[in-house]
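Quick question, first post here. What does this chain look like in 3D?
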Amino acid sequence: MDTSAADSTGTEQEEQATHPQGLSKKAQKRAAKAARLHELKLERRAREKEARKHKRRERAQAIANGECDDSTTRKRRRTNAVADGSTFKARLLVDLGFDELMTDKEINSLTSQLAYSYSANRRASCAFASLLFTSLNGRTKQRLDAMNDAGYRRWSNTEWWEHGYEHIWMPALASQQTDGITSPTPTDTDSLRESVVYFTADSEHEILELKEGETYVIGGICDHNRYKNLCLNKANASHIRHARLPIGRYIALATRKVLTVNQVVEILLKWLETRNWEEAFWAVIPKRKFQGIERVNGKDDGSDDDDEVKNTGELDAEASKLVFNEPDGPDSGEGDGSGASNE
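> Answer (accepted):
Ran it through. Tokens below.
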């Protein structure tokens, strides 16, 4: 028998055994290609695993010989746990209940701001104990689900509610009606409601300090100031406290004192770090919003716009890698509830 003919027959038999009957030749070629790619992938992973083992052996040998320090060679492991004593025992809440009031572009900008906000809290030297996102529905949820295989669900120390922030005290009301033994009293319900503060630039009250045990609400909306008193009216309807940041006490802004969600988060985190509102405002608020370059006390902040970009660039890059590769930056939309300041 001809050897080449026998080899050809053997190859055909192998292909028939490998591929299901009834597939077209094109489908069989695709299946064969996929099988080859899978084999190459396994081989590559095996090589990478062996390379890591070899690198670890070399590092261990170098440490044993005193050629390098273990602390300098071992990569610093990223962790979501902050150092002892650096967690501020308060909750930061972003109210996402404005989905129907935004355009698709504004929705995209908002979701990007959420990533920046999470990243800022995760990297802060003094962070909020937890982040809560409420009223997650509609296009905002669709956008988040579509990004990086719903990567937001893997964010640590975060909660995502489909219902509104009112459920902070509503479960107490529900248990009061159904459980006569362990139900909270009306005082308990009032205490829960009293612990919530909604930040809005339209409030007549200024907040002078943050307190542990409270929940601070930021309106999650990018509307380019189309809606006035939006978050203020919502806070009043919920019978909760509201306040603005004391921006006007320290700096004069050339524009309306409304900031993006992540800018408000970064200001609050900076205050937790320094306990100084002026330092927090000058560190975070974009310089283009200032009427002048001098502070109220006459001291220059010692930085320009280029410095501002350098100071925030690392954070921005990290946030963009978390979930979003967003072409529109986090400053592309400003909302009524995203700022909390003097008017």
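The first helix runs from residue 3 to 18.
The longest strand covers residues 87-95.
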